[in-house]
Amino acid sequence: MTTINDVVRRPQRADARRNFDALIAAAREVFSAEGSNASLEEIARRAGVGIGTLYRNFPAREALLEAVYVEEVQGLGRAAEEVADLEPWDALEAWLYRFIEYLRTKRALVDGLNKTSEVMAVCRAAMYEAGGPVLARAQAAGVARDDVTIEDAVRMLAGVSGAAFSDAAQRERVMGITIDALRAR
After folding, report:
1. Cα separations in angstroms, 109 against 93, 115, 181
2. What is 65-185's CATH number?
3. Is 81 exposed, middle or buried (0-12, 13-18, 19+ CB in 10 A)?
4. Lowest-confidence pick of 76-90, 109-123, 161-175
5. pTM beyond 0.90, yes or no
């Protein structure tokens, strides 16, 4: 079975790995600001590399979009590890807020991604594998609803976060209310 670590291969040489990581960081920034059709030349410039280096690492725009997406999903996995020492509800809440950050980047990339690709399927599974145990621990502690799956929570947050808000304060308030709906009563 393909894992998330199999779908994007980082270069082995240190200098090539630095360039790869710089391209991913620049692409996340540029795609988030300008959408999935952003200039690849601008991404290379911000990464401090030539366009040839970008194309050596990512021969097509979709490959770069997928690599940024994979990095975001891997971030959800790292977030699950980082919250492991928190109290169960605090861990779940922290992971869900990290998931909300992930949604912001995903929205910028989604138009350029093949939603039926193996990469997307692997990433979806990795996302559930990261968040599922965090939710299960909160449920076992009796602080999260036991009739909710990680897929339910992810879909709920994705739907609500896509709404139009009058300002950032309202967005944060509504997201807090949404997360609180997962709390055991």
Report:
1. 25, 11, 28
2. 1.10.357.10
3. exposed
4. 109-123
5. no
